Amino acid sequence: MTVTLITGANKGIGFETARQLLELGHVVYIGARDVERGERAAATLGARFVQLDVTDDASVNDALATIGSAEGRLDVLVNNAGVLANEIVDGPTALRAFDVNAVGIVRVTEAALPLLRKSSNPTVVTVSSSMGSFWAVTNPDRPEFAMPLALYAASKAAATMLTIQYAKSQPGIKFNALEPGTTATDMTAAFGVGRSPEESARVVVRLATLDSDGPTGTLQDETGELHF
């Protein structure tokens, strides 16, 4: 059985990724800040729940310790938790955006590495964004060119760079980042756009189920690799 942890998985793309991986036979741990919402999501899917706030070191360490005690290893980590941070551009909002979207990845990944090293096919997938691609945001032919989301874009650029650097420093573990596609979730509700989480989760699932010889150190969407 493949043991998988998904952060921020009580709704949206994370929830749908959990559902699809459960259908493939994974043992899925739903990580969520809110205990009630997380437990409800896990019960709905038949998954397992761990309280996990990516901005809190103790919460992260406790969650990974719980998985380690129960499973002895972790095969797949999906760094899915994120915030849009589009309210206002100021210091506190910037700190929160980077704490969740970038530093949170470091907290969870570092806590997970000892368990990932015990897997025969360890895989880390980070839900990033093409908004963090310098190529995309400077290309007039791309939709990202006209989207002024400074803090989101900058923090997702950091998330993608962390993915690349982890791929270099941890050659025994696959690290890939992805652009899931514009998705209709709570985070994008203000824009009134996006496809279903089910469609976007398929991109996550593809990278979460790579063979041992699969790619590492990439940024991908549903069509393949993207420029950074």
H/E topology pattern:
EHEHEHEHEHHEHEE
* Number of distinct beta strands: 8
In angstroms, what separates the terminal alpha carbons?
34 Å
Strand order of the largest sheet: 3-2-1-4-5-6-7-8
Provide a count of the helices: 7
Q: How many structurally independent domains?
A: 1
Query: Remind me, CATH topology?
Result: Rossmann fold
Low-confidence runs of at least 5 consecutive residues: none
CATH evolutionary superfamily: NAD(P)-binding Rossmann-like Domain
Instruction: Evaluate the radius of gyration.
Output: 16 Å
The name of the CATH architecture is 3-Layer(aba) Sandwich
Strand content: 15-25%
State the helicity in percent bands: 40-55%
Any chance you could write out the topology, listing elements then pairs?
Blueprint: E1 3-7, H1 12-23, E2 27-32, H2 35-45, E3 48-51, H3 57-71, E4 76-79, H4 91-116, E5 123-127, H5 134-137, H6 150-169, E6 174-178, H7 197-208, E7 218-221, E8 224-225
Parallel strand pairs: 1-2, 1-4, 2-3, 4-5, 5-6, 6-7
Antiparallel strand pairs: 7-8
Helix pairs in contact: 1-7, 3-4, 4-6
What does this molecule look like?
This protein is an alpha/beta fold and 228 residues long. The protein has a single domain (3-225), classed as NAD(P)-binding Rossmann-like Domain (Rossmann fold), CATH 3.40.50. The chain is 44% helix and 15% strand. The protein is built from seven helices and eight strands; from the N terminus they run βαβαβαβαβααβαββ. The protein has helices spanning 12-23, 35-45, 57-71, 91-116, 134-137, 150-169, 197-208, and strands spanning 3-7, 27-32, 48-51, 76-79, 123-127, 174-178, 218-221, 224-225. The chain has an eight-stranded mixed beta sheet with strand order 3-2-1-4-5-6-7-8, sandwiched between helices. Helix 1 packs across helix 7 and helix 4 (91-116) packs parallel to helix 6 (150-169). The protein is globular, with a radius of gyration of 16 Å. The protein starts with a strand and ends with a strand. The relative contact order is 0.15.
